[in-house]
Amino acid sequence: MESTLGLEIIEVVEQAAIASAKWMGKGEKNTADQVAVEAMRERMNKIHMRGRIVIGEGERDEAPMLYIGEEVGICTREDAKAYCNPDELVEIDIAVDPCEGTNLVAYGQNGSMAVLAISEKGGLFAAPDFYMKKLAAPPVAKGHVDINKSATENLKILSDCLNRSVEELVVVVMDRPRHKELIQEIRQAGARVRLISDGDVSAAISCAFSGTNIHALMGIGAAPEGVISAAAMRCLGGHFQGQLIYDPEVVKTGLIGESREGNLERLRSMGITDGDRVYDTHELASGETVLFAACGITPGTLMEGVRFFHGGARTQSLVISTQSKTARFVDTVHLLDQPKMIQLK
Fold first, then answer.
1. Which stretch of DSSP H or E encloses residue 100?
2. DSSP code of 253?
3. What pTM, to 2 d.p., does this model score?
4. What pLDDT is attached to residue 269?
5. What is the per-residue pLDDT for 333?
6. With b meaning 16 or more CB within 10 Å and e meaning fewer, what string describes 218-246?
């Protein structure tokens, strides 16, 4: 899968990032997202694959493209048989977030990127559009920290695993009213808190790289992004756990669904009988082969944002694979406008 799709999925996230970056700082978050979706889908439909979106822009009646269940790839073209035998193409599941951190792009803030994860059919958890309690930590802490433990307990465990004092640890938390008590506990334990407004996928992945000065991600964020984070952490060997949050009283704002009971019924209709189950990386990204790709839209901890110059752009991307056990940073110069020939008189 990596040898077949590796370079092409990098180009998918690059095109989405370039399209979105053109709207950086213009205050138009919906437009920044829309152009990223269109660019990602256009490039994706040129790939020789039979893809299915399992995490995307929402349900079909809410999103015109990259909606959950949409088929993508060269096989969707009416003239597909002129290019390949669709029956011989690899079937893959795809989780996408063409513009992770739309507000970050709209207001020119750091940390937005275009991301996707792929695996063979059935290899990614089809998370409902709910929220998820998350815990991400470095590989050395995998299996030691636990989402069911308190933040104080996990910080002590993390301190021992990293051979650092708790005071040296930095925990990323989304800046939301629901996290008031969590933030207080982390600070009382002695650790430092880095608050972010959006973009917790980048924060989760950063835990797996030394030198980022990010040692954990804690708190509640969107469930679909949790699956994408888990796919990356599966590739990197990092710790990630997620637990679906279905109670509006816990999230306080923004949870889809009118009631706790209604949300539980929706989960049951999706085949999820235990709404309180804790999922790890191998359950959220269970495929034999998992690939993750991201491209910075605005500058971030791991990657530079898109930098435009006359006639082109420069991007920095990250592709991670369970197959080759690699994390590759790709620096690309895109010549968007070919220079015209000089006419001699």
1. strand 91-100
2. S
3. 0.90
4. 84
5. 96
6. bbbbbbbbbbbbbbbbbbbebbbbbbbbb
